[in-house]
Amino acid sequence: MLKSTFTALAATAVLAGAAAGFASSASAQDDMTAAWSKYQEAVRVAELCRYMKHDATAWAKMGPYIDSKVNHEISGAERLTLIENAKTDARKVAKLKGCDSDDAKTYLSLYDAELAPLVT
């Protein structure tokens, strides 16, 4: 009986550790997704609020920088969804809240501090 109790406790500990590791990994992925999306939204808010457009050359400079912020962990398929979500969220910020809103100012500050120097 002692052996079966020990085995059950060991199995429970292994499962708990695996669950904690999975939760930690999922949380880290969520953090990377949020960070990557934040940069995409900053670019889109800058385009909408400042009536500007980024060409392929500008994206070729900003893309690797944004990817480096998330250790290149966002897959190509996931990027497509995140880009479309970022466009929608940026439109909501710029058009509904306005370019003078705190949210827009936060995105524009990020763009000015980190992304604009790459394309100027």
Question: What's the gist of this structure?
Answer:
The protein is an all-alpha fold. The protein has helices at residues 2-49, 56-69, 76-97, 102-119.
Can you give a write-up of this model?
This protein is mainly alpha-helical. The protein has one domain (32-119). The protein is built from four helices and no strands. The chain has helices spanning 2-49, 56-69, 76-97, 102-119. It is globular.
List keywords for this structure.
globular
Whole-number count of domains? 1
What is the N-to-C order of secondary-structure elements (H for helix, E for strand)?
A: HHHH
**Given the C-alpha coordinates, what overall shape results?**
globular
Unreliable spans are 18-23
Kindly report the average pLDDT value: 85
Proportion of residues in helical segments: over 70%
Gyration radius, to the nearest Å? 21 Å
Find the count of extended strands (DSSP E, 2+ residues).
0
The assigned structural class equals: mainly alpha
- How far is it from the N-terminal to the C-terminal residue, by CA? 73 Å
How would you characterize the largest beta sheet?
A: none
Helices, by number, come to 4
- Please indicate the percent range of residues in DSSP E strands (runs of 2 or more): under 5%
